[in-house]
Design a protein that fits this description.
Layout lengths: L1 E8 L5 E5 L6 E5 L12 H12 L6 H5 L1 E11 L11 E7 L7 E2 L2 E2 H14 L6 E7 L10 H5 L2 E8 L2 H5 L13 H11 L9 E7 L9 H10 L5 E6 L4 H13 L1 E6 L3 H18 L14
Parallel strand pairs: 1-4, 5-8, 5-10, 10-11, 11-12
Antiparallel strand pairs: 1-2, 2-3, 6-7, 8-9
Helix pairs in contact: 3-9, 6-7, 7-8
InterPro entries: VWF_A, vWFA_dom_sf
Pfam family, one: VWA_2
Protein name: VWA domain-containing protein
Amino acid sequence: MKAILVVHHEVRPETYLLDDRAGAVRSYFPLFQVGADSAEPRRDTVASAQAYVGQFIRDDAGACFGETHFSLARIEGKQEDSGSAFLRRAIVLIDGSGSMAGRLNGRTKLDLARQAARTFIDSLPSDAEASGIAFGQQGNNTRAGKEQSCSAINTLAAMTPHHSALLATLDETKAVGWPPLAAAIEQAQAMLQNSSSSGEQIIYGISDGEETFGGDPVEIARRVNQGQTRAIVNIIGFGLPPKEAASLKSVANAGGGTFVDAHTNRAFNEAMGVVRESNRRAGNAVRPGEARPCPT
């Protein structure tokens, strides 16, 4: 792998981009201010970049960046649509079906879902708008109560940059009926805006089961991701049987996102770490999964 150092100039503090030009490694880091009228690479720019990166590499630079060519540094304006985007809007979907009252490692799955939602919301960029939807928390978990659950899509809070308003609603969620997952994703899509950049908008679904009303969440997730909203659909599940895990994974794949099955406390904690890191990177124009950490 060959990494190329690119120094971007714009009105805000500078970043540099390490890019293998094949999309395998792509990371922005803070650097220093470079004049917007600079036309040619400067020796002090390259030297400063070398010094900055060098402080993070102690033993094996190749294991982290591969073969890095600082001599190829150049000055260029940052591209607005570079394949990654700042996270602007996020919607959390919480499964309110009766099975969420079940327990996993000593806690109800609904309690775990609330914690997962809090982690996600707390780690959002401060200026990102957020909303929440509970689905399936009407009727009951019997066949007789299923019909009422079908249309049970409840908005917890309107889209807002004030995340505390959304956090305050999480304890109101209940484990009651059946999960209309497809309808919940469709409702989330209606709350988003058209976007020209994949990654500006995220739908984060939390569930312990597959669609139960004959909807097609895979097709809807695909439309959400490939249509005008270009939103990413991520799913976290709790202790799922293989068939249902595969079903939810298909939804996330179609939505351009990731599926995680948190079946143990360790898996849950690891999933929450991924959520926090993904949102941190999204706030710095780095899509989840694009950068790999240096060895420690």
